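Progress report, Aim 2. The chain analyzed during this reporting quarter is listed below.
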Amino acid sequence: MKNYQSDAIYQGLIDEMCAFIKNNIDVNEIEYISGGERRDWFFSLIIAKFLNKPHITIYKDLAAVVSIDGKTEELRKLNGESVLHIADLITEASSYERAWIPAIKNNGGRIKWSVVVVDRKQGGGELLKSYDVESFSMVDIDIGLFRRVLDMGLINKEQFDMIERYILDPKESMAEFLRKNPDFIKEALAADDKTRERAKLCIEKDFYGLNIG
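Predicted structure tokens for the chain:
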């Protein structure tokens, strides 16, 4: 609340998100609002407060607590209640599939809607649809946006071409990048904890079929 009261940009965004939700979803049907560790919480907690809904705080290990009327306790069994999940952005919706949807489902509830500030149009919306989650975004980032940015002179043609390749085929674009930059993963493994964790996951899952490591 202190940040909301002192930061005009944050306040404006939260107000817009609340209005967006009211314009697109019947608020009376929302029984809980959830947010996932950690960035989602900057949006979901305060919106839950303004919409007067209990908040489910979800952790990456699928643990969850619920906050109601200023009291927080471990999430008990839900009885099929409908949940609105709020996040900053969506790409491939891997966090939803891995953690947010299972955490609610395991407790007897259902994420019925997802509202994000930005959809990067990388298949996340389609994945959520396959889980019967209605996906809403305030801003879509697609190739049309970057064409306008190019026309404005904010990026050059080489940068635009790189972005376009990534949007058209993210997996092959990244595989090509890693083939051309063999030291990238090595440097990532020697970086900060978060970067190192992501690099290890990339190697373990072999996302790009390069058999790295």
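The CA atoms of residues 17 and 23 lie 10 Å apart. The mean pLDDT is 93. These observations will guide the mutagenesis work planned for the next reporting period.
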